[in-house]
Amino acid sequence: MADKSNHYIDNKQMYAVFVTYLKGVRKAKRLKHKKPPIPEYLGECFLLIAHKLFHRPNFMNYSYKDEMISDAIENCILYIHNFNPKKSDNPFAYFTTVIYYAFLRRIDKEKKQLYVRHKMMEQSAIHDTLYSGTYHDEHMIPAYIDLNNEKMNDLARDFEHKLIEKKKKRNKKKLKK
User: Fold this and answer.
1) How confident is residue 6, by pLDDT bands cut at 50, 70 and 90?
2) Maximum distance among all alpha carbons in the chain?
3) Can you state the angle between helices 91-126 and 65-78, rounded to 10 degrees?
4) What are the residues facing 134 on neighbouring strands?
5) Spatial distance between the Cα atoms of 71 and 77, rounded to a whole number of angstroms
6) pLDDT given for residue 60 in this prediction
7) CA 155 to CA 111: how far, in whole Å?
8) How many angstroms separate the CA atoms of 74 and 17, rounded?
9) Is 134 helix (H, G, I), strand (E, B) or coil?
């Protein structure tokens, strides 16, 4: 038998709280009342899962931890009614998956923003509107901005490749219809 101290969330308790919450939602809907608030225990579970998942090696080095966790909790709240207790008794797995994909979506959003900033800086440099440097005795001393670094070029190439692949998939789907 597994040692309970190794588990940071009790799946059976989470399931029981979830089922009780759904009963309250159904009752409120039947009586045309406002939905009851999500139980604090479920919110704590979402937060614990998000924090624990963030510390996995594939997520822990991103600088936008707060945004990732906020997106994850928001997605849990948005999709809380999609979990069907009749089909599964494992809400922990369901919400871990929701959080995992919320993290991936946030990473994609941040990569897109980084790509856009990089392209804007490239365009500014091309059009001579990018100024950087320090002022000394009312004269600007220009600073060298390396827009041609390997990391940013890789990011731009990968992002553009991803866009092309998505476009190809969409076109294939359209042709099948």
Assistant:
1) low
2) 75
3) 130
4) 141
5) 10
6) 86
7) 8
8) 19
9) strand
Q: Tell me if 85 sits within 8 A of 19, measured CB to CB.
A: yes
**Is residue 156 over pLDDT 50?**
yes
The position carrying tokens 């588990």 is 7
Instruction: Give the residue carrying structure tokens 């899962």.
Output: 49
The Cβ-side half-sphere exposure at 14, using a 13 Å CA radius, reads 23
Decide: 46 and 73 in contact? Cβ < 8 Å.
yes
The DSSP code for 141 is E
As given in the structure block, the two tokens for residue 97 are 């998956």
Q: Which residue has the tokens 């002022």?
A: 135
What six digits make up the tokens of 91? 């809400």
| Cβ proximity of 80 and 38 under 8 Å | yes
Residues 6+ apart with CB under 8 A from 20: 39
